[in-house]
Amino acid sequence: MTTLTLAVPSKGRLEELTRDWFASRGLTITRPGGARSYLGAVEGAPDITVRFFPASEIARELIRGTIDLGVTGLDLIHETSEQGPQSVLAAGELDFGHADVVVAVPDAWIDVTHMHDLADVASDFRSRHGRWMRIATKYVTITRQHFARAGIAEYRIVESLGATEAAPASGVADIVVDITSTGSTLAANGLRVLEDGVMLKSQACLFAARAAVTENKRDAFIALFEQIGLHGRIPS
Amino acid sequence: MTNAAYRRAQLESLVEAQGGCRATPPLLLKADPYFDLAGEEFGRRLLLTTDATGAEYCLRPDFTLPIVADYIANGAGIPAAFSYLGPIFRQRDTGPAEFEQAGVELLAQPDGDIALDQVLTFARAALSIYGVVPQVRLGGVGLFEALLVQADMPDAWRPRIRHRFGHTEAMSRLLTRLEAAPDTAGAENARLEDLVEDITARMVSAGLSLSEGRTPEEIARRYLEQQTLDAAQVPPATLALLRDYLAISGDVLTALRQIEELADKHRLMLGAPLRTLRRHLDQLGEARVVFDASFSPRLDYYTGIVFEMRGAGGAVLASGGQYDRLLERLGATAPIAASGCALWVDRLEAEAAR
Known about the structure:
The structure holds two protein chains of two kinds.
Chain A: E1 4-9, H1 12-24, E2 29-30, E3 39-42, E4 45-53, H2 55-64, E5 69-73, H3 74-80, H4 84-87, E6 88-93, E7 99-106, H5 115-129, E8 133-137, H6 140-149, E9 155-159, H7 167-170, E10 175-180, H8 184-188, E11 191-202, E12 204-209, H9 215-227
Chain B: H1 3-16, E1 21-22, E2 28-30, H2 32-43, E3 48-50, E4 56-59, H3 64-73, E5 80-89, E6 98-107, H4 112-129, E7 135-140, H5 141-150, H6 157-163, H7 168-179, H8 192-205, H9 216-231, H10 236-247, E8 249-251, H11 252-265, H12 271-281, E9 288-292, E10 303-310, E11 316-322, H13 326-329, E12 338-344, H14 345-352
Parallel strand pairs in B: 1-5, 7-9
Antiparallel strand pairs in B: 2-4, 3-4, 5-6, 6-12, 7-10, 8-9, 10-11, 11-12
Helix pairs in contact in B: 1-4, 7-10, 8-9
């Protein structure tokens, strides 16, 4: 019998909503050991092993192909590796965890409304201020890709693992790339999203690891997807 | 000796024979100068590590920067020639992260044109060791800068257009924006002092430093400049000139003739940079040469002429050119002529094995 490994976010609202989503499709995920156990199961489906991981680890393991299926944010797939999006199949959108990865500048920068303004500002920032324009973000990969596409090369990333929106006020960076669902945290910190500053629209998705969809597992994938109403999501 | 070892030995002696100093910079280098010079785009290719204090180091990702930095530290200004052959380390989509590069750096040479000829000759000699008759792609940074200085447009647009040279999509987006009908409806006549006051108030309330980064005055001036720019459009004839020019790509003699015709039509004096380009063609022998008007590395320290050479497999085997602004960017106090090139040894070997 072929076994599939399904990774589910290990805590909080994300875990709850994921389990609700599967339950509404007739798949009840159990966690026999409670919140401290990282192994689970699906009722009536002994061929599916459930593992509880932090969402960022789910993204990493999907890309590596060490788990077969997992629920995580699209932003984490893009951020974890440049090869991330090619390494997974987006099987279904779960319609929660909606958030955008955006470029935001201080509201006082009244001359900067679009990415092309930012390109102008970045290009002579160094000659004016003796340093590169600094961008605080935890989304290093996404920022680099998006800025390269926008033709902006003259900047430095300052990695920020929390409270990114405070970076301009604390003098750590000039602008930010951050994730936001309503924009209210950014606005409260005097930051404004550029008009073309949405880099990625993210939400929670069910992904299959491309490396895992092998000949002998294909039937198991198809059977599972049929069961949860995602017909035809595995290419033959 | 196997064929591959024999070729490698010949390349080694070609590098040795460059008559300059054989440079062997350390394998472990400070990462900051690379980020400072080439930005995040190149930075993501580095193999990074940190020491106990948290300072970032990278495995040598190229030879040019350590060679040139060392040259400046030892007193720039004296003509110098360096050659190198050794491993470098970069994250790549395909192939191992460790691979070999060979190359030359000619610094502060009295005649920049002769120096570039030496570089081209070196690249051709190296390629012929591997039996490659290359396709050469030339780009004219100096030519484009000469055109831009003379083209009819408000001055403030010139650096904005220059900045996008070498990035086809960003350039095209800017030209499209300029071609669209001018939107002058929102142009209110704000006074600088009022704007500065307003911006200062916003910055203070957001807790931003008024001096660490962009200042209120800088923002206000650029805001007003933008409004002026929206009103002062680039003439349609100039936009057509830029589009026509950047689209020129093909056999070098045809391309240069097209550029001459374009220059005639728009009354631009491009004779000097065009003559320089023609002179260098002699060094390229029987190679097929293409001139691509929009081709330039995205780094603004390149000047004059840039080139790349490809083999039958299509991969870039050699790339280089003139970069007279590099030494200033790395701390030299005056512009210093510089040219050089780098060869991808593993790709050359793959080409020979075809």
